[in-house]
Amino acid sequence: MPENSNHQKEKKEEILVYPKEVNIPQRKKKSTLIGALLLLLISLVLLWACGIFGNGEDVPAPILEEGVETPDNEPSEDPIPAVTYLEQEKNPESGKYEFRAAWLPSVRNLDYPERPGMSTSQLKESFRKILDVYELYNLNAVIMQVRPAEDALYLSALNPPSIYVTGDLSKDLPFNLLQFAIEETHKRGMEFHAWFNPFRVTVDKSEKETSEILAALHEDSYARAHPSQVLRFDDRLFLDPGNPSAREHVIHSIMEVVRTYDIDAVHLDDYFYPYRSTKLNENGETVPYLFGDEEEDAMTFLANKGDFTDIKAWRRNNTYLFIRELSESIHDLKPYVKLGVSPFGIWGHAEETEGAGSDTPLESSETYQHQVFTDTRKWIQEELVDYVIPQIYWNFGEAAAPYSVLARWWNDQVEGTDVDLYIGHANYKVYEQTDNPYWQGDSLIKDQISFNHSLGNIRGSSFFRFGYLTPGHSAFTGEGKEALVKNNEAIRTLYEDMAVIPKNENLPHAKATAPLDVLIKNQILSFRDGYEGFDESEKTRYFLIYRFPKSDLDPENPAYIHRRIPVDSSISRYEMNHLDTENYTYAVSAFNRLHVESQIVLPGEE
């Protein structure tokens, strides 16, 4: 009915008022009432069988809630009708396969936690609301910052609790925040990418002496305990990537999470060596200021240079050694965990790199020759990383770094490799740069994603940052808010259908097992997980329910994905109720954590 439709639309829009003002409805959960009714029914039947009730009246069956997975611990002894398998040919160009994510930063309490000192219940409620918004946009991966600055949003033996959670250096985390976030994310059928800032020690500038800054850090801070491994630039501190012990500490910190938690990926941002800054010269003029101008790491170079004579090449080798060892460590321990990096949008300029870089002006920042010193192109060529998300935070036509030029350049870099390419989009600029003619329009980010779809190797997108997907928040006002609303509506229209994260070919192959005992009876689809082994790569992670028009059984059409159901260890048999079997044909398949799909099962019918 129209009134009901409008009401549903209004409720859906309320989700965008994240996170304080609206109590966002939670997804339906298994009803305890249903379980009680089932137990009551069984009891009544037993009593009737014993002759206690002899009036011959029928006991009404409980009404099942539509779309709820219900456990059935008393499987029927009736034979399951024969099923058939739907023939399918994968189409990588289909809209069915697309990585969709948003960065969820914790630094400076940008997105989560929204403020320091929140209670356990507040943190849990806030994170669930965040996942509601991810679902509203049909996103399928959360990139959550878990180590913003040599600290931890998780229980760690190597890094102190993050002040962005505790609000006080003397306090511990209120609970295992990371464990909760991973579990809740997986309950929604999404991937969880643990985002690490590898070398940063302090976020904000300070004119105090380095020793004073270190003394004010948590007593368990590695930097505080190892001041010789700390460098200073632009009044901020960071661990020295040229120091082997500092690199080892960062790798151990990341591997602590890989070993302990069921994450899907390790995600690194672009902070290795520092970006350039500016300062006042002797004449009071503002001039560029580059790391190395004051020989910040000259002593480290002398102690660790080996055969290197070019300090810039040595710095690039330091970040290369770090990535290579980290990649080997992750994949040796858990071959199914991905390593991804999010580099600055410009690797290098063609004019400075013998044509290897992008056709961008020398005045624009880059990360190969003068700052950061990360040869991401080499990492891709050697397939040390499983995916890259370059931050192309410019729009079409911007001379400093035209979006189309950079998207094509990165598309070319992954050609012939098994490294997945996603693009990082600056949805924050839709709000913050309304006076910039290049950032005026109602579908800016949608247009960028549509352009990505025209290139053969771009397999998804991520938004910086999550908060700008919630324009109903009171923090947004004026023209910027209006622009966000329109652009976000365009994104949601583009992402109207669900998508499956593409299988990463850089990871080992793992098969998926089709669901068993698939049956439709009385408009109820039921099935159970077919995998019974212990291989983490091959365990079923989620199921897809397809709803096809009778005349078009095309599993590559994303419009026919009806529902994604994550595996729940407490459920022995899954059910979906009140299906329209007269007009549609239903089918089900299983996916493992590497997003390999099993055979698609067309159920038997009774």
Question: What's the topology here?
Answer:
Elements: H1 2-14, H2 32-49, E1 84-86, E2 99-104, H3 120-136, E3 141-147, H4 163-166, H5 177-187, E4 191-196, H6 210-215, H7 222-225, E5 230-233, E6 236-239, H8 244-260, E7 265-268, E8 277-280, E9 286-289, H9 298-304, H10 311-333, E10 338-341, H11 376-381, E11 387-388, H12 403-413, E12 420-425, H13 428-432, H14 444-453, E13 458-463, H15 478-494, E14 516-521, E15 524-528, E16 540-549, E17 561-566, E18 574-576, E19 584-592, E20 600-602, E21 604-605
Parallel strand pairs: 2-3, 2-13, 3-4, 4-7, 7-10, 10-11, 11-12, 12-13, 14-21
Antiparallel strand pairs: 1-20, 5-6, 8-9, 14-15, 15-18, 16-17, 16-19
Detailed description of the structure:
It contains 15 helices and 21 strands. By secondary structure, the chain is α/β, with parallel strands linked by helices. The chain has two domains: 81-91 and 510-605, SOR catalytic domain (Immunoglobulin-like, Sandwich), CATH 2.60.40.730; 99-494, TIM Barrel, CATH 3.20.20. Strands 2-3-4-7-10-11-12-13 form an eight-stranded parallel barrel, surrounded by five helices. It has a four-stranded mixed sheet with strand order 18-15-14-21, with no helix packed on it. A hairpin with a 5-residue loop joins strand 8 and strand 9. The longest helix has 23 residues, at 311-333. The two termini are 32 Å apart. The model is unreliable at 1-5, 17-66 and 68-75 (pLDDT under 50). InterPro entries: Divisome_Glycosyl_Hydrolase, GH, GHL10. This is Family 10 glycosylhydrolase.
